[in-house]
Amino acid sequence: MDITQTKSEGLIREFNLVIPSQEIEKKLEERLEKLSLSVKVDGFRSGKIPMPILKQRYASRVKTEVLEHVLQEGTRHIIDKHKLRVALQPKVDTKDYEEGKALESKVIIELLPDIEKVDLSKFKFDHCVCKVDDKEVEEALERLRKNHTEFKLVDEKTKAKKGHAVHLAFNGTIAGKPIPGGASDGMDLELGSNTFIPGFEDQLIGLKAGDKKEFDIDFPADYQAKDLAGKKTHFSIEIKNVKEKVLPELTKEFAEKFGKSSIEELKKAISDQLSEEHSYMSLLDAKRKILDKFAESFKFDIPQGLVELEFKSIWEQLQKEMAQSSPKTKDKKESEKDETKLKKQYQKIAERRVLLGLLLAEIGREHHVTVSQKELEKAITQEVRKYPGMEQKVLDYYRSNTQAQAALRAPIFEDKVIELILQKATINEKQVSFAELKKSVDAITQEDEHS
């Protein structure tokens, strides 16, 4: 094959690739010989079919496959010969092939940029860290108790108040007619939970077991059931019993519910979990500072093909979100103006993401950062747990899908590079409270939701 470079501008390289007809013919015959082992032609044994007959019957069938193969080989030869670091799948523009003539193609390749070695020791960052204190552990333990609150019957003379749960029977009618689904012989309702029609729970406060009451309530004007929205409804209710919240005691039995032998062991587990959460939040905070600093400090050519793909991904996601949440109230001209403005904004975001992605990839490559199979398996397990009842299906998906695995590897790799940077750079460790760390991370999360 004959290769001639025709263009070299920035990260773009163009080549003229000419593959002689003899080479194509040879590949075609090799493919037909292989095919002859699996096809049947009357009068000939498999593998013994004459080439002219094979060409007559099957050449058109395998020609496209052969041409694709020789073009792939030619493109790979260009990449290897010129030692190119390719950013995207090369574009191949091929003229129509005429039998007996050479196949001519233009191969356009966009390269990864050459990034100078980064001296991480020259960078300085504040790293916010937060220690777990006894107060935080006690607060977490108290939340755990509240999450396992039990309701116990109160004395029959005790009047219901907010925080109590009542077991009641009720019947609702509009203009004397029953409401579909508007009656029950027994329903539990926590007063103050605001889980029923607005105002309904207030009518039950002060009642006790055995009490009956009738009252009218208007359904909200924006109630989801349109046939009930804004309608005055008459309810008849009877309180069957009243229960109060009882927090579980901090006993050995309570600790055993969580697989621990004592309250002290449970506190230790809570402390370890909080410490892990703090470390992750601290890493998120440091990551944003590092990425902002790098985006400000490094400028180099980035492959526009990668930017286009990133922008397309961002824009498609944004369109889905807008379609789900935004009513169409603007006129066409105003919408087009807003869209143009948004596209410019997200174009810059796409460029930043590509630049930082390439930079972190280069730093990781330079320092031999890898994602182990064990780390990938852990990430897959975490994904599987998100889909109860579909565990095997999700597991099979990741096991058989290399692209899905790559999507899980990417954030793990990125976090490991950030940790490497924190090890190599000059770090000013700054002790902060959990409230301060959370405020910083919440701001980052909110910003990411809009970018």
TrEMBL record:
Keyword Protein transport: no
Cellular location(s): Cytoplasm
Recorded superkingdom: Bacteria
Positions of the PPIase FKBP-type domain: 163-245
Entries under Pfam families matching the protein: FKBP_C, Trigger_C, Trigger_N
UniProt feature coiled coil, ranges: none
Transmembrane segments: none
This enzyme's EC code(s): 5.2.1.8
Gene3D superfamilies: 3.10.50.40, Trigger factor ribosome-binding domain (3.30.70.1050), Trigger factor, C-terminal domain (1.10.3120.10)
Assigned protein family: Belongs to the FKBP-type PPIase family. Tig subfamily.
Domain observations: Consists of 3 domains; the N-terminus binds the ribosome, the middle domain has PPIase activity, while the C-terminus has intrinsic chaperone activity on its own.
PANTHER family registered for this protein in UniProt: TRIGGER FACTOR CHAPERONE AND PEPTIDYL-PROLYL CIS/TRANS ISOMERASE (PTHR30560), TRIGGER FACTOR-LIKE PROTEIN TIG, CHLOROPLASTIC (PTHR30560:SF3)
Protein's name according to its UniProt entry: Trigger factor
Species whose genome carries this gene: Caedimonas varicaedens
Name of the encoding gene: tig
